[in-house]
Structure formats: C-alpha cells, structure tokens
Amino acid sequence: MVAGIILLLVLPLIMGGVVYFLLRWTTVAALLSIATTVLLGLAVTTLPLDRPVRLWGGPPIALGETVTIFGRELVLEEADRMAMAFMFFTAAGIFFLAWRAAPRSPLFPMGLGLLSLFTGALLIRPLIYAALLLEIAAALAVFALQEEGAPPTRGGLRYLTFTTLALPGLLVIHWLLARYALTPDETKWLGAAATLLAFSFALLLGAVPFHTWVTALARDSAPVAGVFVLTVGNAAVWFLLLDFLETAPWLSGHSHFGPLVLSVGLVTVAVGGALASAQRRFGSLLGYATLADNGAALVALGTHTHLGIALIFLLLLVRPFGLGLMAIGLSGLRARSGGGDRFENLRGQGWRSPWSTAALLFGGLSVAGMPVSAGFIGRWALCRSLLPSSPAAALFLLLAGVGVLSSLWRGMAALVARPRSPENRSVVANIPPESHLTAAVIAAAIVAGVVVGLFPQVLAPVTLRMAAGYTFFAP
Fold it and tell me: Which residue among 147, 159, 182, 370 has its CA within the 20 to 30 Å range from the CA of 24?
C-alpha cells in the first residue's frame, strides 16, 4: 500500500527534475507541469481519506494514512485537502500563463519544487516545523524570480530576508505555548506567544510596515514568477496561520486579537491604495494592489467571525485571476519595450501589443475590485459584511480600489496614446503582431475572470467548504 501523502510530496519533486532538463522545449515543459499539478489537485480532492483506493490496477493508495519521517508526523486533514487543491490548481493556471509569457522559465521546475515544500508545510506536525520548510521555499523562490541571465532580484532577496526574520519568532512560539500548557495561570506566556505570532505572520504576509518585499518583488522580479509567490506562496502562509489558530484557539480568543488584526489590515489597505494611486510603473502598481488585497484579507480575519474566514478564502480564490492577467500583460509589454514598464516609456505600446494591454486592463480592474471582474465578488462581499458594524472600514476598501483604478487609468492612457508623428506611426505599423497562441491564452484567462465575476455562485460552495474546516471562530 502506498501512502498518498508521500506521493503529494515526492511527485512534484520528481517531475520538477524532469521538467528542468526539458526547459528548452517550452511546450513540453509547460504541459508536464500543468498535467502534474492538475493530477495532484484532482487526487487530493477526490480520493477518500478513510480507505485506500486502487487506481488503474496499481497498488492501493491510502491518502489519509499518517506517515512518520524522522520522528515528525505528516497528517492530511480535511481543511488541508482544500488548501492544497487550491495551491495545485492555481499553480496549473500560472504554468498555463507562463507557457506564453515566460518560455524556458525556471518557474516550471522551481514552481513544482515550491509546491512540494508548501505541501509539506501544511502536512507536518507539530506545525512549528513548517517554518523551516517556508524558509527553504523562500530560498528556492529566489532562483525562479530572477529573469533569465540576470542576477538575483532585490525583491527575491527581500522576500528571503523577511522570511528569515520571521523564523525565530515562529520557533519560539512553540516553546511559549508549551510553557503556557504547563502553567495556564501564567498568562504572560500566552501574551508573548500572541505578540510573536502577530509579528512573524506580519512579516510573512507583508503587512505594513513590513510590506517592502511585496512591492519590490512585484516591481523587480519576473512577473509570472512573482505572481506565483504572491498567490500560491501567500496562500500557503494564510493556511498555515489558520492552522496555527485552529490548534491554539486561545490565541484567537485573546482580547486584543480582533482589534489588532483589523487595525493592521485597515492600515495595509490604506497604504496600498494610497501609494498605488501615485505609481508610474505597472510593476509597482501590481505590488501595491497586492498589498491592498492582503490588507483586505487581514480585515476579514479581524472581523472575528466565521464569515470572515470564508471571505479570506474568497479573496484568495479570486486573486490569481487579476494578478495572473496583470503578469502576462506586463511580461508582454516588457518584452516588446526593452524591459521597461514605466508609463512614459510604454506610450503607444497598446497598438503594438493589444492583447497584453487587454490582459493588463482586465487584471487591473480585477485587483481594484471593479464590477464584472473576479476581484469584485471578494471586495463586495467583504464590504457588505463590514457595513453594519464598521462602515468606515468598508469605505477604506472602496477608496483603495479607487486608488488602484486611478493609476491604472493613467497607465492605460499612455498605452493607447497615438504616436505624435507619421514616422512613429510607421514604426508601430511595422511591429509584428502578437502570436495567435498568446492571444488565445490571454482571451481564455479574460473569459475565465469575467465568468467568475458574473457567476460568483461558482466559488461560493468552495469557500464554504474550505471555511468549514476551521472552528476557532463560532459559526
């Protein structure tokens, strides 16, 4: 009998090694990466946990069997199933975009390796050892984030630095909670653990004032690889945080937990929206829009309700639609403009790269939370939940979206500006058009985002099922 947990960890690593040697054949590498992640996503969602299953005449696979490695248990629980399914399917979508946006990118093998590490972080018990796997993942991500032939980016190095800074706090929390369990009357241990937990995850999530790695990563790194970290990697941190709160419910029950998280979330939303409105580069805009979205998820957690947990998952589910489109659009524009992404340097590029421009536009509308986009359903649901008790918080969310939209408007105005001279018009006309495959990939991604925005009931059952695995807030 084969332990399914081992397959979830080992198969991405094996396929990552295979894909690495096939990078020169972009389509083959992309298809193998997509097939691996889709297969793992289907397996983790469909195979039962309570009994072994025999597939295609092979040995029986026991997905729910606990495995012990070096004295540490690997346990797959119901909540973790949905978390891993989200990571696998999101990675498959990003690999699909990278097929056209980043050919021969190290993201394919590195992304599979990152998935193995993120999966291990969710499976390992005690959870404190997950911090070590996150540290290894951050070091591996540095290689995927750098452009081909370029040195490590500042964003990747900052991401590694902030993850390293969060590591000691997460390790000390385990010791503090053990002391509190032995002497429950000594509340100082609980207070210290709560403080370290907030500090460590603020670093990992990029909350203000520890947000500089988020914006630097989006500005300086390969766009599609950066979005992989900001979606799959960020989701792994969120799932780990919720697992921490589930195993130690007295942390979320602390009197200062809700107000503190809500305040940090509102500050992050405000800073992200305000600074997004002042940007003159699409990469920086992507970073600050992500910062505002991170703040919105913190606001949802700060509501201290079970509905807030469901809203966190809804925000995480819709984020890849907006960021993925912005990434493939930004990659196309950078490739056709010499690597720059400043608004003034991209003047008129919309006529040369219409599909990349469309991707950037629809992705920007989604991360701004505009109607008829995937991002709208998450922001609107959160605003509706905040209106009765905290209308000021709902206003902050709306203003953050306006800030992102204002910068996007200026960028679009530069992209679609007509060349001023006949000579420039002739240059534009002589530029080869974008390939039909690239257009088809972008069109499929845009349609997917619009469909989710128009039919939010598609994601509603998924978010409710994901939230059902967490009980530290009363339903």
Answer: 159
Nearest CA to 265 among 396, 149, 135, 153?
A: 396
Cis peptide before 126 (omega within 30 of 0): yes
Bridge-partner residues for 73, per DSSP?
68, 125
Phi/psi for 72 (5° steps) reads: -110, 135
* CA dist., res. 145 & res. 156, Å (int): 6
For tokens 């590498």, the residue is 29
For residues 223 and 334, the answer to whether their CB atoms sit within 8 Å is: yes
pLDDT band at 427 (very low <50, low <70, confident <90, very high): very low
User: Distance (Å, rounded) from C-alpha 168 to C-alpha 166?
Assistant: 6
Strands (E), 79-158: 124-125
Give the CA count within 13 Å in the CB-facing half-sphere of 48. 7
- In the numeric block, the tokens 């940090």 are attached to 264
pLDDT at 421: 54
**What gap in Å lies between CA 392 and CA 386, rounded to an integer?**
8
Average pLDDT over residues 378-398: 93
Are 301 and 213 in contact, with CB atoms under 8 Å apart? no
The answer to which of 178-182, 264-268, 430-434 has the lowest mean pLDDT is 430-434
Alpha carbon of 201 to those of 82, 93, 195, 341: distances in Å? 21, 26, 10, 31
263 vs 146 pLDDT, higher one: 263
Q: Can you tell me the distance from the alpha carbon of 78 to that of 64, in angstroms, rounded to the nearest whole number?
A: 9
Reported as a pLDDT band with limits 50, 70 and 90, residue 242 is: very high
Query: Are the CB atoms for 61 and 7 separated by under 8 Å?
Result: yes
CA 310 to chain CA centroid, nearest Å? 16
Residues 458 and 205: their CA atoms lie apart, in Å, by 27
Q: Does residue 104 come out as left (phi exceeding 0), alpha (psi in the -120 to 50 range) or beta?
A: left
The DSSP secondary structure of 316-370, one letter per residue, reads HHHHHHHHHHHHHHHHHHHHTTTT--BTGGGTTHHHH-HHHHHHHHHHHHHHTT-
d(CA 32, CA 99): 11
